[in-house]
# Entry
Amino acid sequence: MTEELRQAHPTQTSTSWQEFSVPYRFPVSFTQDLFNPDNALFTDTLRQLEPQKRHRFVVFVDEGLAEAQPQLIASIEQYAKAHSQHLELAGKPTTVPGGETIKSDLHFVEKMQKVIVEHHIDRHSYVVGIGGGALLDAVGLVAATSHRGIRHIRIPSTVLSQNDSGVGVKNGVNLFGQKNYIGTFCPPFAVLNDYKFIEQLPYRDKVAGMAEAVKVALIRDPLFYCWLEENADRLATFDAVAMQYMIRRCAELHMAQIGQGGDPFETGSARPLDFGHWSAHRLETLTRYHLRHGEAVAIGIALDTRYSVLKGLLPEGSEERVCFLLEHFGFKLWHPALETKNSAGNLELIQGLTDFREHLGGELTITLLTALGTGIEVHEMDNALVTNAIQWLKQRYSK
# Structure
């Protein structure tokens, strides 16, 4: 605007719209024995943008995983040495706590940021996280907020992280008693899944991850749900071929929802991939995380499936079918925390609905079922029916 125009319109208001789009694209790979020197996947992943460079990276490893697989850190170092023409491991891999421990104390976030500073990791270097979903969430937050974003490689080590959280775009840690209160939406540079980690998982962790497969099948893929039922015996005994297919298919369905569902960064009010999660998140808190995430999700799935029947959305008997499958996998579909009450005599679990809405904002949006394989979004929950569903689970468990 010229000076002449400014003088003619001294109080004029104008608005210019800034508009641009940023495409996101990252590989989700499945392999066996990722850090075998003969396996080029890790090296090729780091080189995909600048193949001529020698790429620096730091590694954070779940300390529980490092204890269970004492050869892992040495394998990473040997791998980097074998591929030293293209890779530079900046310091010995750092072990940090896994599970909710790493997400419940900001000290660990600061510790990882300090490692990044001390090794001069820049935005063209890589931050590699190896562990379960909680560790990947915390490392992802560190990578996303250091230098306003460092390339992050996720290497999920559990069923739950390979088939669900590892392929997502969310990072975060807990604060003020709320899960993932501090976090970012920032896609990883790559996700590298190694089936070798699954083979060496403890029984409880193998089972816990199957809840997310049941969840996504129930809301998005009736054929996959039928496959889970037909292969329940193989999955319950951790048949390698069945487990690998279950993990891949579950990851594909999560990727499809995130990439094609129209709201990858959750700017709206819907969270379809969180079927069964409003109560699961609350249960984790009420049990001080003695319940694993997958174990709490299994209970949440059973609760919301029964609620769907009580609401008249789902045919009677469907909830028994779902519960039978979850129990066949090894889940216990009851915990006394479901009946915990506050000083006013109200169920503490109901607070999970408020927390669920507040975390995303907007109106309450809960996914329920109209069929085994079809989800529907509702915007209110009847507390009396929730209580009824809880009592149904208790009576069923007591039989």
